[in-house]
Amino acid sequence: MMEVSREFVVCIKNTDYAASLEVRKIYQVLPDSKASPYQMIRVVDESGEDYLYPNAYFMPIELSASLQQVLEMS
Question: What DSSP string runs through 36-72?
């Protein structure tokens, strides 16, 4: 069975989404090929659900293997 690596981003802006996104917080990205052409990204937000947000609100981050493992278990 192939292990899928999860992608994480950090929120750098939350204009119009203050209740859903926290600046400087790490969010898990969910694959969504239809969102990319619209410069959108699908993340699991503060509601615990996944929604689309502008790519410009996030920056990709590389996590150490041990931190990624901890985040994937939660």
Answer: GGGTEEEEE-TTSSEEEEEGGGEEEE---HHHHHHHH
